[in-house]
Amino acid sequence: MSDTLVKPSSAQPAPAAPKRRRNWLAIAATAVGLVLLVLLPVIIGTEVAYLKVAQYILIGAVGGIGLTLLVGQAGQLSLAHPFFLLVGAVSYAVLSGEAEADLVGLGLPPVIGLIGAVAVSGLLGLAFAPVAGRLRGIYLGVASLSLVFLGLWLGQSLESLTGGTSSGRTPPTFELFGFAFANSEPAPTILGVAIQKQQRLWFLFLALAVIAYLLARGAVRSRIGRAWRAVRDNEAAAAAMGVNVTRVKAGAFVVSSAYAGLAGVMTALWLDLVKPDENEFTGNYSLTVAIAFLAIVIIGGLGSVPGAVFGAVVVYGLQQFFLLGANEFGWFADAEFGGLTAVVLSAFVYGTAVVLVVLFEPGGAAAIGRRLVGRRAPAPVPAAPGGRDTPERNDDDPRA
Amino acid sequence: MIPGRRAAVLAAALASTLVLAACGSTADQQPAGEAGAGGVKTDKGVTDTTITLGVMGDNTGPFKNLGAGLNAGNQLWADDVNAAGGICGRQIQLEVVDHGYKADTAKTLYPQLEPKVLGMVQLLGSPVLAALKQNLIDDNLLAAPASWSSEVLNNPSIMMIGTTYDLEIVNGLAYLQQQGLLADGDKIGHIYIDGEYGGNGLKGSQYYAEQHGLTITEAKITSTDNDLTGIVTGMRGEGIKVLVLTTTPSQSASALAANQALGLNVPVLGNNPTFDPALLDSPAAGALGALYVAASSPPFSSETPKAVEVANEYKQKYPSAPVNAGVHTGYVEGMVWQAVLEKACEAGDLSRAGVATALTTLTSVKTDDLVTELDYSSPGAPPTRGVYIAKVDPAAEGGLTEVAPLFTASEAEGYKAPYQQ
Amino acid sequence: MTTFVQLLVNGLGKGAVYALLALGFVVIFKATEVVNFAHGSLVLVGGYLVYELKDALGWPTAAVVGVLAAALAGLLIERALLANATSADHNGLALLTIGIDVIITEEIVRRVGADIPFIGDPYDAQPIQLGAVTVFRTQAIALVVGAVLIAAFLLAFRYSSWGVAMRAQAENREAAALMGIRSSRVTATAWLVAGALAGVAVLFIATQDFSGAGLGRGTHAIALVAFPAAILGGLDSTAGAVVGGIVVGLTEALSAQYISFEFSKSAVFLVMLVVLVVRPSGLFGTKELSRV
């Protein structure tokens, strides 16, 4: 690189974190929000398709949270997220699926399968960590792309695990203590709405997402988060302060991959299908998804956990919503012959959002959010996954 | 934000929850197994005046042209039936969606379509079919697949129309050998899309190779790999005598172009999905002559009387639409559905279960030679084994000329499909 | 043996096109340290115009318009967007190009729609036989055009005032600015040149000979394969881009035959990964030092 020096970060003292005031209103709002989410299947009623959209958003949120930790908090740009999604999805099917003629399946209980899938994804993240540790910024980003291609190849060639690119394999139904996340007769009802497969999956996804969210917030606020940010802002300085840089970087990769793995399991359950992609540019584990996750993270504000959730609503939610509208109400009726389609329109929206964020509000939605709630936002945060040449960031701010 | 405003927002949110919850709780219950007009039992997709059938087709993916032909064929059939007074006193309605040959899109669209239809008159694509397999079984929804893999015949919800890919290839290779283009002990190449479409075709090659001591050089690709030059280069090195394709049209074009460019110039065998008349306008046009198409339904330009009738009707109704073999295939899908519905109507049961039962009682469905006579009484076995052979001909409508009328090779008679009892 | 020679010929022809694309990445990176993720969409812009105009204007004129349009699109992106993103550093700008890429790509893929048009009319699917070896005309012309353009570029880079300014800026931005080099002009020119190279490359990519498919999402994906080419050689090395392009072309062709077809796409990226692990700045790239 031409500038052979890493500029020392223009260290300005971080503003002292104000005392956390437990505002009853905030608590009430959170509670109402949660109640709303829990009651969503009832609110939606028989229009299950909308529930599918909501489920899909949670997949984006879980994956997005994982990526924002890695890119925003730990400063490692990764486009490898789809690979770990694939690993998670396939691992779940292999661990808990039944062995069939051409398919490997261990038939373990689905809960073990889910946890195992997350663990396998994390371990593979660990395996990539030595590579990630050697590279920085955009070089790491492009190097991580190779994992997407690796996933493409493995998905195609390991048919006994993945089911092949054409039709894939059916993931096992999720079960928890004998309760199956599938249709049943008769089904329990809440306020007259039958709680069938999709409703049950929603509760499962919601629980997983809430756990993922809380763990991420916890990590960001704890010593782990501080170590990530120290490494992001200046590796040498972090090392001087006694942070084991290699370990911290590897740790971030593991955590992020595990999140992606969970999102992968959710994708499998959502689609009711585990199917590796046929090419690198379209599909559930493709470059498009890598870009979409990056967009989630950028739109939400690098490093912000709630921001990632917001980003998921924009990127994952809109696409599915448009897709739904296209079929339900005949939007984009001319789509067949080059008109606007749901996918195109949502790509426009999130592409534009990324451009606008970088141009005008590098802190993303998180920064806007902070401003909206009237608290004094910290100085604008530059979007810099490389973490170099950047002034202090405050996305570790617990108020984020 | 000032506390007062926030409280107001909260209150509003809370109120709306309650309202919405109330709305949600009045979820409608669908009556099941009701007796409708004429004392016929019905459940989903059938009213007193209409029978709604679904079409999950491809208008935007690799088989978009074939898909357009299929959809038109389905519609022509529905129009004909409706003009003749419908079935069981009801008019046929089609509910059409486009999945672009993508399993995951189909998986999302299916739950929206399923409650509206009795069954599917067309479900295009092996990957889609495989992904929806369990859904079809769970919903007891009978579907006529526009994909012809014998690997799916273990699914009772599948109503195969025409013969399967493996048998198409067996018949096709037998034809080439009859023509002296292939000899016992030769080497052949087979390029196939992984999954049931390509893999099932490969089963046919393998079976025929066993019978005749052929060696096969196999190459597996995905449905979006478009440059097959390298593969054909390797096969040229192997000295293949015939190249078999179970690929998409643009992949066929690449293989055929390479076949010519590299001076290999062997006959190429494919089936319906491998060819699309649009290829005649592509740079590969000059190389298409080597392609033989073995398919269970006739080429568009076929002189089979029913085929001529349907073709004329199509040209009249869709004067500017592209012509391809999908039109006849789509039409014959409808004809078989008609046989099933009429049988179910006779039995007084147009529910999904009734339709499924009706299918198994059909032992000889005749389609005016659009496909060979169909027998649905032995689940697991292909309902029929005959094919038409056509050759690329730029002068013919639909780009294919029939070179052999409907026939069944002796090797095809002896072939045992994967789930055949 | 014939097979091997044939594969070498195929691989080299493709390598030349990858080199053109990789050079585009490198030019921009050298001038601005921004990795241009929107390169694939510049490729599509050029190709789309050729497709739209070739019937009306004739292929040669349409091709020239396409190249110019891709160049202007590059310039426009830089002037209108990147130059205004004052609060973003070069990594932030790279993310910005991702957003741009998504928009342009979706729009053009949508416009092309179901057509997937081939745009190599004068030379596509007209192979030349040299003994047992077939030379695809598209690849042959790509090789010649690529060699000429790359030579011209390297000469300009070495001797023209733009080249000097560019190298000075790449060496040290502040010092170059102090010496009176107008950074904005150098940067804008870099985008212009990169766009033009993308516009030339697409004339060969969207052909039966090269990709077996016309202009569409796949074309964009091919442009992405030039990423490893650029990174392999070293993002700031022009010679590296050329070497990288050819390595990528050959790796793809040979691994498809001798390992497996499915593996060939990944092979390129795995080679890149190995190179990066051994030499984090690529084969010919400048080493990055870290000092506190």
Secondary-structure element order of chain A, as H and E? Answer: HHHHHHHEEEEHHHHHHHH
Give the overall pLDDT of chain A as a whole number.
Answer: 82
- How does the overall form of chain C come out from the CA principal axes? globular
Distance between the termini of chain A: 34 Å
Biggest sheet descriptor of chain C: 2 strands, antiparallel
Query: Are there runs of chain C of 5+ residues with pLDDT below 50, and where?
Result: none
Q: How many β-strand runs of chain C? A: 2
Low-confidence runs of chain A: 1-17, 334-338, 376-400
- Name the structural class of chain C: mainly alpha
Strand composition percent of chain A: under 5%
In total, the number of strands of chain A is 4
Distance between the termini of chain C: 55 Å
Kindly give the count of domains of chain A: 1
- Please state the CA-atom Rg of chain C, rounded to the nearest Å: 19 Å
Largest interface: A-C, 69 and 66 residues
Q: Work out the oligomeric state of the chains in this entry.
A: heterotrimer
Shape of chain A: globular
Number of helices of chain A: 15
Describe this entry's structure for a reader.
The complex is a heterotrimer of chains A (400), B (421) and C (292). In chain A, 62% of the residues lie in helices and 2% in strands. With 400 residues, chain A is mainly alpha-helical. A two-stranded antiparallel ribbon of chain A has the order 1-2. In chain A, strands 3-4 form a two-stranded antiparallel sheet. Chain B has two domains: 37-163 and 300-384, Response regulator (Rossmann fold, 3-Layer(aba) Sandwich); 165-295 and 407-414, Rossmann fold (3-Layer(aba) Sandwich). Chain B is of the alpha/beta class. The longest helix of chain B has 23 residues, at 3-25. In chain B, strands 8-7-9-10-11-12-13 form a seven-stranded mixed beta sheet, with helices on both faces. Chain B has a four-stranded parallel beta sheet with strand order 4-3-5-6, with helices on both faces. A two-stranded antiparallel sheet of chain B has the order 1-2. Chain B contains twelve helices and 13 strands. In chain B, β7, α6 (196-212) and β8 form a beta-alpha-beta unit. Chain C is mainly α. The longest helix of chain C has 31 residues, at 2-32. The radius of gyration of chain C is 19 Å and the shape is globular. At the A-B interface, α1, α2, α3, β4 and α13 of A face α1, α3, α4 and α6 of B.
